[in-house]
Design a protein that fits this description.
single chain; mainly alpha; 2 domains; two-stranded antiparallel ribbon; 4 strands; elongated
């Protein structure tokens, strides 16, 4: 699966997976269902009011706006998500992983007419499959893609780290971190060790000693490893 690297506030790279086509189709179908139910409900209400044709169409232009602007409004004000995307844990982001601007959302929304509406989604599917990085025509023009926020964990991705019998922790300050923060640290550390990315380990080291307010004598790689073990020690013995 294609990946994108997102830079955190501490300039630490995190790999992010592109949403698969199945998730995007399911999100689209759910959003379409919601829009359809809204339109059906509004029509039933307007019919029950018994308006004349002129008033009917004037009111229809007004009440249909939320359905027409559904995607651009929700993605803009809900951080790149619609109800369908939220359900499928996907999100619109820029290619560098940052949050799109309104202009980005607007461009991909306008071009839905080309690659979704006029072709019943056929062009969007074809473009996504050919491009391989999650981009339909609207995404290409807007410089965006759709990522998956689903967490895929293996036993190696968990916080559990083997601790020797009789282990003596070094840094009690490590308990200032929350589980999800330490999980991110461990994931980045394991990835950096595997890929030989010393700059990521150094970034983790600098950030951790600042948060923990310690001045370790260990080298960065030894300090991060020890801090992870210490966190496991304290959480397993609490």
């Amino acid at each position: 699966m294609e990946e994108f690297q997102i830079e955190t506030a501490q300039n630490v790279g995190i790999q992010q997976n592109v949403a698969n086509l199945g998730d995007r189709l399911l999100a689209y179908l759910l959003d379409t269902l919601i829009i359809g139910l809204y339109i059906f409900g509004m029509i039933m209400i307007m019919i029950s009011i018994d308006l004349d044709m002129r008033d009917f169409w004037a009111l229809w232009l007004l009440v249909s706006l939320p359905a027409f602007l559904y995607y651009v409004l929700l993605e803009t004000f809900w951080n790149g998500q619609t109800i369908g995307k939220y359900t499928m844990k996907t999100r619109v982001v820029k290619l560098d992983g940052s949050k799109p601007s309104f202009a980005n959302y607007f461009v991909r929304w306008i071009l839905r007419i080309v690659d979704v509406s006029l072709t019943s989604g056929g062009l969007a599917v074809l473009t996504i499959l050919i491009r391989g990085n999650g981009q339909r025509v609207g995404d290409i023009a807007a410089g965006t893609t759709v990522i998956s926020e689903k967490v895929k964990l293996t036993i190696n991705d968990t916080l559990l780290k083997e601790i020797p019998s009789g282990y003596v922790p070094t840094y009690s300050q490590v308990t200032v971190f929350k589980d999800d923060e330490m999980q991110l640290i461990k994931n980045l550390y394991d990835q950096a060790i595997t890929k030989g990315q010393h700059n990521i380990i150094l970034s983790l080291y600098n950030r951790m000693i600042k948060v923990m307010e310690v001045e370790p004598l260990q080298k960065p790689i030894e300090f991060v490893d020890t801090a992870i073990k210490d966190y496991n020690y304290y959480t397993q013995n609490m």
